[in-house]
Design a protein that fits this description.
Elements lengths: L2 H19 L1 E8 L4 H14 L3 E8 L3 H14 L6 E4 L3 H4 L12 H5 L4 H6 L10 E7 L1 E5 H6 L9 H17 L6 E4 L6 H12 L18 H13 L13 H9 L3 E6 L2 H6 L10 E4 L13 E7 L7 H11 L2 H11 L12 H6 L3 H10 L5 H4 L3 H16 L5 H16 L7
Parallel strand pairs: 1-2, 6-7
Antiparallel strand pairs: 3-9, 4-9, 5-7, 5-8
Helix pairs in contact: 9-10, 9-18, 18-19
The structure holds alpha-D-glucopyranose (GLC).
């Protein structure tokens, strides 16, 4: 073999050895979960770990759509190596996810996150199915400029106040020429987000959480019916008729183009609302959600973790990348640049985080008091429970049923799905 051929041979052998050694990992990120930050993080990680190649796939924005994809992965035992897990899923997905405690670094890391999130992500047997990545709690976004313009000094504390303020501002803005303007946008579509909004309305009106943590179906009660009647009356009055098909992103789009006085949404909408391309940058603030006249504000608890499915061919490497993505340094960057709420209590005292997202100073308390959906008590049937809830609430919003009747149907469905007794208020 002459020298040239030898060189070609050696470099070929080397590169194929390297190619063989490169570990291919993949992750799917919902389009509104900060995918660009994950791409940057993956690039940095590959620079530090040249032996892995990470593919970041864009997933759907809505949690239900992502769940459908994951269910296919579980059935076919094939799919991405790192899953982003909604806080409501660990209970339902236990059979398909690995215990992260078998991998290096997770025991130490787990101690640093909010305890309640770790508990949520841990099975009865003590297996950690997801390492927390960001947390979520429902917030009221309001236009500071418009509240001032119409003489309101504070954001509304009750749903009734929200309704009357929204009406005044909407009427005024329409007279001023903006025919597209609406008072309040929220998540009225038939999907998981509606379950959360409904939990916030009902629990803040002293109507409970659909199913109690003791395993009783509590949803058919007059307080729940009262607040759902009120919300149904907003459709096509202070809220656009299309709100019954809005998820987070549709609400944000109306809000961010300057066409709504109030919005219910999660923290991620804060950074996007203040971005250069937003019509409302610097013109809004956030507050706790309103409550019923007799009740207290309730933020629904959301959030996401990272876990490794049992079919992954490279679980150890996948877990190492999940640990990196969920690290304090990564969460700090995502908090500052994308207002994704950290799962490390410590970061709520971080000056740079608070300078970028001032409301995080109060958010820690909101998260600590946020009310979870009944996922733990109904697992592994939460997905079916939630489907029954959002379908029933949707029939009320679109006025197919009145609230009391819709809740009766729901209570019967929930009894059938869970086998739990129904309690009369
Ligand atoms: C957010 C929350 C998640 C919730 C979803 C509903 O992504 O973090 O917990 O299920 O919204 O749309």
């Amino acid at each position: 073999m002459n020298r040239f051929r030898l060189l070609v041979f050696i470099s070929f052998a080397l590169s194929s050895a390297l190619a063989q050694e490169t570990i291919q990992l993949s992750i799917m990120i919902g389009s509104s979960s900060g995918i660009d930050f994950v791409r940057d993080a993956a690039n940095e990680y590959m620079r530090l770990h040249p032996e892995v190649a990470i593919e970041v796939l864009e997933g759907p924005a809505r949690t239900d759509d992502l769940l459908a994809i994951y269910e296919d992965y579980f059935n076919s035992q094939e799919g991405v190596d790192i899953l982003t897990l909604d806080v409501i899923w660990p209970g339902d997905m236990g059979d398909f996810m690995l215990d992260l405690y078998q991998f290096e670094g997770f025991s130490e890391a787990a101690n640093e996150h909010f305890e309640a999130i770790i508990a949520n992500n841990t099975t009865l047997e003590g297996e950690l199915l997801a390492i927390p990545w960001f947390t979520d709690a429902g917030l009221l976004y309001y236009r500071t400029d418009l509240l001032e313009k119409y003489g309101f000094s504070d954001p509304p504390e009750t749903w009734q106040e929200l309704q009357s303020m929204a009406q005044v501002i909407q009427d005024g803005e329409r007279v001023a020429g903006n025919e597209e303007f609406w008072g309040f946008v929220f998540q009225g579509r038939e999907y998981e987000g509606l379950t959360v909004d409904a939990l916030e309305w009902i629990a803040s009106n002293e109507g409970g959480t659909f199913i109690s943590s003791e395993g009783e179906v509590t949803v058919a009660n007059p307080e729940a019916a009262e607040v759902l009647e009120l919300v149904a009356s907003w459709v096509d009055s202070i809220s656009p008729p299309g709100v019954v098909d809005f998820s987070e992103e549709e609400s944000r789009s109306v809000w961010q183009s300057g066409n709504a006085a109030f919005m219910r949404n999660w923290p991620y909408a804060y950074s996007l609302g203040n971005a250069d391309d937003s019509a409302i940058a610097g013109k809004f603030a956030v507050a706790p959600l309103p409550a019923g006249e007799e009740g207290a504000s309730v933020a629904g608890l959301g959030g996401w973790g990272l876990g490794i499915p049992n079919y992954s061919a490279h679980p150890e490497e996948a877990a190492a990348f999940a640990l990196y993505l969920s690290s304090k340094a990564q969460q700090k960057q995502r908090a500052i640049a994308g207002s994704f709420a950290p799962t490390y209590p410590e970061l709520y005292q971080d000056e740079e985080v608070l300078a970028a997202v001032p409301f995080f100073a109060d958010f820690r308390t909101i998260v600590e008091h946020a009310v979870p959906r009944p996922s733990a008590v109904t697992s592994p049937n939460y997905a079916a429970v939630s489907r029954a809830i959002y379908r029933a609430v949707h029939t009320i919003l679109i006025k197919e049923r009145d609230a009391a009747e819709g809740l009766e149907v729901l209570a019967a469905d929930l009894e059938a799905i869970t086998g739990f007794p129904r309690v009369q208020p």
